[in-house]
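Archive entry: two folds, one per protein. Generate the first.
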Amino acid sequence: MEPTPTPPHDAPHPTKRRPRVLIIAIGAAIVTIGLLLAASLAGDGDNHNDRSDRGETAATTAPDEQATATTVPEPGAGGTGPAQATTTIAADPQRDDVFDDGRWRVGQDLEPGRYIATDITGAACDWARLADNTGETVVAAEAQVANQAIVDILPTDTAFRSRGCGTWTRYTPPDPPPATTIDAGDWVVGEQIQPGAYLVARTTSCHWTRATGFEHTTNEIVQTDGSAISLEGPMHTQLAPGERFTTKGCELWTKTG
């Protein structure tokens, strides 16, 4: 029987490779896990940045309404104390159906139509329909109007000037019933005041006009205080539907029939 050959002294033993391979495999796994973890953290950071950017944009971008309106606090009762309400005022300086004192171009700054001013302080309202933009050519005008003013602005007018009248708005008929007494100002017979016979005490300061329309031209006049036949006793007038009745400096008119 032949003796079993003895392997050379420096030949590798098969079992000596297993620990090194296992260590290398574990190390590779650890590196892979580390890379995956790093990638995950980096992705979370990007997502967080994206959310932050979107949140910042949403917080700093104003809504469309803020670009066109401003909210102004109103004072409390009597003009003192904390604000009780807010009023939204349009930021657009060109408002076709609402305008304040000043000179306005018809067809550009405001549209033609019938307008009314109701916040007049005292008898301070002075307005004019103009045939030019300089204010030198007057089509029709009224001065020292109290309480409320009503005027038809025509497409043929070039401009409209207002002083002390406050805010003008498009005229719309009020809810019925019409009144049976008449204070100072311009009135639409049949819509604001009832048609019929009215009287007022005679005073030297009382001036009034019945007219067929609201252009405030002389050819509209039907009757004035100067048309009265009698110079004694109260003044009388008969108002028809659709007419304009303008009264200045008079006491309260009362319906008699």
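Generate the second and append.
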Amino acid sequence: MSGSSNPPPDWGDATDWQRQQQQPYGQQPPPYGQQQPYGQQPPYGQQQPPGAPPYMGQQGWQGPPTGPAIQTYLVPAILVTLFCCLPTGIAAIVFASQVNSKRSIGDINGAMQASKQARLWTIISAAVGVVLIIIIIAASVATTSSGSNY
């Protein structure tokens, strides 16, 4: 050969094209220990240096605005509907189901108001159910005690 100092590329070596892609023309990587400015993407083909913040360029949709955690009262509303009072329990379920939908669109005040209404109707349903059970038991006791004197 004519004095070529570079040996032929091995199967694991980078080609000339790959070496050019790793080091864009006219750009040098930051010296060791220096980082890219925050939020700046490293040049194509280079890795982030260790400890550098992640690239914050193209971010996707972050989801609905988050606010404080708001109690929905959905489980108690369902339970009082099944075991205590159906009409007022349905109102409690309706208000409880509005809490998450209002919160997801960013209506925090509306979600808090719906949560308060769900709590109120859940308490009303439980109270009505307890009163009805007491009335039924009292009527049952009164009927059995008066019917025993034939």
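Annotation attached to the second fold: The chain has a mean pLDDT of 76. Residues 74-146 form one domain.
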